[in-house]
User: What shape does this take?
Amino acid sequence: MNKTSQIKQLVAEINRLHSEFSKDYFETGAIEKINLSRTITHIPMPHIYQYRLTLHESINDYLMTAEIAIRYFYRVKTRESIDDKISRFGTREDQYPVNNWLNDIFGARIIVANDEIKSVMEVLDDWQDELNLKNWYLRDKEGYRGLHIYFKNKSNFYFPWELQIWDEQDLLSNIRNHEKFKRNFM
Assistant: This one.
């Protein structure tokens, strides 16, 4: 199996896990479903925190069932990081739907060669339809470079998840960038 096929398998598995976890969490009737395509003033903070805590406590159970042939890293966003993001986006004059910017409570990351990223970018539009992805983009800003793919499963009630694909040559600069810009809430 070539690297692009392995990445596609990872994308498909993350999407499957996102759908499975989201259905288990949101579709049982145990919690109120809230439309995340609204702005932060309409989304109760306990709804976000409870989702984060449940995800943090159970994500390994879901990941253990995944058939992933490529090495990956993951994290569940800390409450402090969520609060930081809410304070930055929630006070903007031009408000955006919560599911457009609080789209990385769960994040996975892989590091691959540059030509592998290019190969994936060539097929991502096809994967977007085939694998039911929300969107994707290449971020190249302030010393950070990475391909970001988002999983939503076409539901405005599910928090999106994120996969970042980094070029192995950008690894150290991306880590420094995250330390500088993404951890200022600490």
In short: The helical segments are 3-26, 45-63, 79-90, 98-101, 114-130, 171-182. The two ends are 41 Å apart (CA to CA).
